Amino acid sequence: MLALSREITSDFQSLQATEPSEACVRYLPRLYLDIHNYCVLAKLRDFVASPHCWKLAQVDALKDKVRKLYTIMNSFCRRDLVFLTDDCNALEYPVLVTTVLPDHQS
């Protein structure tokens, strides 16, 4: 489930980078997923229901993955999910990854 959510986020970012000429891509709901955020289910549902870009094959493929993740989370894992936050705004922006450099002791 975690790997699929990362794949969806990566595919969405690639779509934004490779299809900027398609105006519809700008109007798609953003997909920066955190499976431990309670709002993720609504975010997935909104993306699948979005009428934008219905003619782009890449968007159709992405919607299929989103639908699959939603089904897994809502049906198969419903009782096992642990939501750590309900910050819906956090799903609007990419997660910043910080790298901690190792200490160099002399």
Level of helix content? 40-55%
Alpha plus pi helix count = 4
* Largest β sheet strand count, sense and barrel closure: none
What is the SS-derived class? mainly alpha
Whole-number count of domains: 1
**Over the alpha carbons, how many angstroms does the gyration radius reach?**
16 Å
Name the shape in a single word.
Answer: globular
What is the H/E order? HHHH
Distance between the termini: 43 Å
Secondary structure: number of strands = 0
Instruction: Bin the strand percentage.
Output: under 5%
**How confident overall, as mean pLDDT?**
80
Spans of at least 5 consecutive residues whose pLDDT stays below 50 are none
GO biological process, one term: positive regulation of transcription by RNA polymerase II
InterPro entries: CYTL1
Pfam families: CYTL1 (PF15153)
Protein name: Cytokine-like protein 1
In short:
By secondary structure, this protein is mainly α.
What is the element layout, followed by pairings?
Elements: H1 2-18, H2 23-27, H3 40-49, H4 57-76
Helix pairs in contact: 1-4, 3-4
Task: Tell me what the structure shows.
This protein has one domain. It has four helices and no strands. It has helices spanning 2-18, 23-27, 40-49, 57-76. It is globular and about 40 Å long. The mean pLDDT is 80.
